[in-house]
Design brief:
The protein is 43% helix and 18% strand. By secondary structure, the protein is α/β, with parallel strands linked by helices. The protein has 2 domains: 183 residues, Rossmann fold (3-Layer(aba) Sandwich), CATH 3.40.50.450; 116 residues, Rossmann fold. The N and C termini lie far apart (60 Å). The protein binds 6-O-phosphono-beta-D-fructofuranose.
């Protein structure tokens, strides 16, 4: 394998708090180890359209505490085409980029995998997504911050829910994965989480809520993961309203506010460790792997596993929520 001298770095897909900390860690670790770094703007789009600049240690000063990504991000259709990837490869050659570090979620790492296979380019991925849905890593960069944001929001909704004795359905992000909804529900003391991984019938849900109201509570909060499988908070609320008109139902969709904000300490530390590990991986001759964390240890996960296997929901968490919601 040719010696790596210059590393290209990009963020792709939905932004996630902690991406800047990861950009900083990759850049500084790379320079520390004697590599040059090129920052690629707007994800794969910048690779196709040649938005590539030198990145020095100063480029990543004072960014560790900011949400979003200083490299900007995009979902790029051109990169899904053979011609787009060809153009991307030509721009890599033009800038003498020998390896890529890609920070992003499922779709971004799928793109990285295809590109690496087609052009024999060493690529290392960092899991950057609030969804926590990548197999092989306990946590993704941005998930802890988003989870804390969900908790913060639900705490506030609880005040009004309880004052008006209402039933609230709160929709959280997750792109067909229930991690934010389930752990958000546990952290905020919600009555239930409706997640795509586990089917919940409306009458089961109503029973749970009824029990809650009857025993001790005058209000109820249910977190719903966005997904056609759950029907989303709107869909679910509509069904409950029709069948159980006695409840005063309200819906809140938390939406993109879950993606912003200053990253938590956990996300900053995770991003810093993973960014440094990406450079170690390249030094060790690894390619086409995602950096993961498993039981606090850094691990290398082949792209094929990270993007193609479904990360399971921990049944113990489901049971904990069920027990605590009585
Ligand atoms: O993958 C991150 C995520 O925030 C998902 O939870 C959500 O489904 C999606 O991105 C929203 O994408 P966009 O910002 O393009 O609307």
């Amino acid at each position: 394998m040719a010696k790596i001298k210059t590393i290209g770095l990009l963020t792709s897909g939905g932004d996630a708090p902690g991406m800047n900390a990861a950009i900083r860690a990759v850049t500084r670790s790379a320079i520390f180890s004697g590599f040059k770094v090129k920052g690629i703007y707007r994800g794969y789009r910048g690779l196709v359209t040649d938005e590539i600049v030198d990145f020095k240690t100063q480029n990543v000063s004072n960014i560790i505490h900011h949400g979003g990504t200083v490299l900007k991000t995009a979902r790029c259709k051109e990169f899904a085409t053979v011609e787009g990837r060809q153009q991307a490869y030509e721009n890599m050659r033009k800038h003498e980029i020998d390896a890529l570090v890609v920070i992003g979620g499922d779709g971004s790492l799928t793109g990285a995998r295809e590109f690496a296979a087609e052009y024999d380019v060493p690529v290392v991925g960092l899991p950057g997504t609030i969804d926590n849905d990548l197999y092989g890593t306990d946590h993704t960069i941005g998930y802890d911050t988003a989870l804390n944001t969900v908790m913060w929001c639900v705490d506030r909704i609880r005040d009004t829910a309880s004052s008006h004795e209402r039933l609230f359905f709160i929709e959280v992000m997750g792109r067909d994965a229930g991690f934010l909804a389930l752990n958000g529900a546990i952290a905020s003391g919600a009555e239930a989480a409706i997640i795509p991984e586990i089917s919940t019938e409306v009458d089961q849900l109503a029973e749970l809520i009824k029990n809650g109201f009857r025993k001790s509570k005058n209000s109820s909060i249910v977190l719903v993961a966005e997904s056609p499988i759950t029907g989303g908070a709107m869909g679910l609320a509509e069904r409950v309203r029709k069948e159980y008109p006695q409840y005063d139902v309200r819906v809140t969709i938390l939406g993109h506010l879950q993606r912003g904000g200053s990253p938590t300490a956990c996300d900053r530390i995770l991003a810093s460790r993973m960014g440094a590990a990406a450079i170690d991986a390249l030094l060790e001759g690894q390619r086409n792997v995602m950096i993961g964390d498993s039981n606090e240890e850094i691990v290398y996960v082949p792209f094929s596993k990270a993007v193609h296997k479904n990360k399971p929901i921990d049944p113990e968490l489901v049971e904990t929520l069920r027990r605590l919601s009585i």
